[in-house]
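SEQUENCE-TO-STRUCTURE ENTRY
===========================

Subject: a protein chain together with a token-level encoding of how that chain folds.

Sequence line: the amino acid chain in single-letter code, read from start to end.

Question of interest: how does this chain fold, as expressed in backbone structure tokens?
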Amino acid sequence: MISLVNRHILFLITWMLIASCSSHQLELSTREPAGENSCADLMSTLIQKNTALDISPKEAPILPEPLVDVPLTRIINKRKSLKEKYIKITESIRDFQIGKDVPVNGKTKLLLDAREGYLAKIMMIRNAKKTIDLSYYIFKDDDTGKAILHELRLAIKRGVKVRILVDSSGSIAKAPFYDDIKALIALSGRAILDEYGNPTGEYAHAEAMLFNPVFNIRAHIANWAKTIHNLFVSDNEKIPLATFTINRRSHDKILLIDAHSETDSMAIIGGRNIADRYYSVNSGEENPILDAEILIKGLATKDENGNIQNSLEDHYNKIYYYLANKNFENFLFKTNRAQVKKEFKEMRVSAKNLFDEDGPLHEQLKQMEEDKFLETDFEDGLISIINEIQNLSRTKIFLAPQGAHNKKNGNSLVAKLHAEIAKAEDTVDIVSPYFWIPDEEIEFLIDWAKKHPHRKVRIFSNSITTTDNIIAQSMVDATFQETIIKRIKGTPYEKQFEIYSYGRIDDEILGGNKRYGFLHAKLVITDNKVVTVSTSNLDPISRHLNSEVGTTIENLPKNSKNLQKLVKYIDDLEKNSTLWGSAEWEEIRRHPNNRIMTILQAFVTKIIYALNLVPII
């Protein structure tokens, strides 16, 4: 077994080889053939030699699926055909529909409490019957993450087909080994036993993908081979190429269970990643995060031919089979039996820490189960799944940020927001941790407000005290100051805009007695009746580079508890924020504890504008 030190040394050697051989491929497209055959040969030799170092036992083979469950067989066959299609025929991302998906009549439930959001995920995984599809930008190696993996492990052992997609940048802390996820994959092919320990005839099935990894040796070599192949064939015979780029990410946060069941399918979409700090699962959490998610039922519907359609699963399939992804196979850095046992033990310990009688989540989980949380208090609504998946097909994005040469996405998240704001009659409330939108959209909001003096726009974002990203906060404040306040100052519609920075002068960071933490929610509410919950920060990266996903809920009942909760959520957010440019806002910026931040912010802003970096940040 390779020691941890040797594994890191091997990783560094591999990294240097890739950097020297394919640094030009860290741009947006890998369409040039390899310049030196010897470099590719050297990496191939390294791969072969490293494979020989592993002495881990062979995993049980994945046996053919039994035909005892026809719907499940159809699901697996559909996935196999999609994988083959996207490898041999067309790239998955380019397969998005130009037309809009039809909204569905479903049921929704807001998850504003952090722990409630986490426990809802635990309950969903425990209730899954056939499939679990999971995708998160950040998947931390802490109690929250390990306990989720423990629940997935139990689901796999009872026969649920599990797919995991993690982003290689957001989950960089797991790199390069990802032993915990590969431990779950090691269960694949093992016999599923019933409650008496007898084989059921079914076999465990788990798979995982690393989204768009930069350091993917085999994929780079394969891309070079495809490039050479494409030089000598007609357009119809050309093989699609993967595009590798450091800053093109899957920012999605999705948990979807039983996607093909009209009765059992459920999903959670929102801003929370998988990490302790998003759910405050441990007492004394230092940086609480204010966020929001939504629990959805009813996305699975039958078409005119009787086939189940699920627009969220369609989106998931496209990002999961993205050509630039990498399988979590036991390759290069292998996980052996001892490591698998160690990972499973750590998962059990984390689950015990959180859910046992003395654990911080025990009583709340017990109460949610008694209250039948996944069955009660849902509200009818018209549900649209929206995304920015077309970003992943873009090329030359820095040269053409608007991407006019790309196909239009009929389910575009930004386009949906534009449409809902245009229809609004009275109010628009926008919550974003990094509110930073282009000039033309500022003009769009101003024009909307101009049409009637009673219209009101409220915008909430972080302050210099609560932010976790000084570069982003610099552009947030620049957007507020330069592209909104300057345009409305002294005009008749100045009072129609209220711009808030999250946090007050009594923040612990400033010597006060209140802990505000970090605003991470991504919400848009129009007329207090149409709600959009998403993963998009509405900044340039969300608009032009990342895969983002969200949902818009319309036609909620007049006495909607969801809307009542959101109105209170926004009102509380206003109470816990300062009006931009107010006396308290100025006092916060002048506070000695913020002195370094304000100096750094001024410097960053000057650099960005001086070098015209706005389009590419």
About this structure: DSSP finds 18 helices and 22 strands in the chain. Residues 1-70 have pLDDT under 50 and may be disordered.
